[in-house]
Amino acid sequence: MNTATLARLTDLLLVALDPPPAEARRLVHGRGRLLPGLEQLTVDWLEGVVRVGLFREVPAVELEALRTTLTALGETPIWRASGARSLLLQHRYRLDAASEALIGAPVGEHVIHEDGLTFGLDLSRHQNMGLFLDMRLGRRWVREQAAGLRILNLFAYTCGFSVAALAGGAAQVVNLDMARGPLTRGRENHRLNGHDLGKVSFLGHELFKSWGKVRKLGPYDLVIVDPPSFQQGSFALTKDYARILRRLPELLTPGGRVLACVNDPGVGADFLIAGMAQEAPGLAFVERLANPPEFADEDPEGGLKVLVFGQS
């Protein structure tokens, strides 16, 4: 990152914060490779907190120049008028994904909003804060489709899809994730939105050891599959996704649908379309959902892929 690149970053942020978005949004998406020199940088607006993610270690002189550039934002009238209280620089390339507060105080627990729904974040300890902003339109789609449905949410994380589904009138949602901590956050997200927890189940299980329980709680009108690209000891996308796809027909009601997702830049939508045709030929590709415009990517296959399949 040279002087010109950092000047452009300043310009982008001043425009994005004048005024700031009303809800949480990505402000700068360097990872989309449309901003030369900023490919390893993202900036998110988290309703009073600006979080900068640095995805690759840079030389000390460049890091100090970045810190100086970001700190200088706090002296601008636009920053002061934005209502921003803190600016965090997160070192995503580090194992501990440590954050430092360049403006204001460090931030831990924090609340944001999306489409009028409330979500709790943890900005202090984890690489991921608790909600993936690029999935906003996927959650919106689920909310629009959910009325009266029984839904299975696999790899549920902090239950963002589940919150959207309950807001859309889902009859029941089953959330499954092997990590119990995120599921606890998911339960709290439902409470933040005043949802009836009697309509929500939280299963802290490893999927491939829990098919019997998952099937017993079904069948489902909609199955959401949003796995990580890799989860040590439990899931590798290119190897294990097919194992999920072939079980989908036994989980679905007649006319049921699947929302299948991939967020590996090296794996395109054809991976899901071909995989579904091979493993569950009764489920036909229906449509690919758009990504939020702020997540534009040089290669459309490099960003998030969210695909809908329905029984043919």
Automatic annotation (TrEMBL):
E.C. code: 2.1.1.-
GO biological process, one term: methylation
Domain S-adenosylmethionine-dependent methyltransferase as annotated: residue spans: 25-309
GO MF term list: methyltransferase activity
Keyword rRNA processing: yes
InterPro entries hit by this protein: SAM-dep_methyl-trfase, SAM-dependent_MTases_sf
Keywords of this entry: Methyltransferase, rRNA processing, S-adenosyl-L-methionine, Transferase
Gene3D superfamilies found in the cross-reference section: Vaccinia Virus protein VP39 (3.40.50.150)
Top-level taxonomic group: Bacteria
Class of enzymatic activity (EC top level): transferase
Record bears the keyword Nucleotide-binding: no
Pfam families named among the record's database cross-references: Methyltrans_SAM (PF10672)
UniProt protein name: Class I SAM-dependent methyltransferase
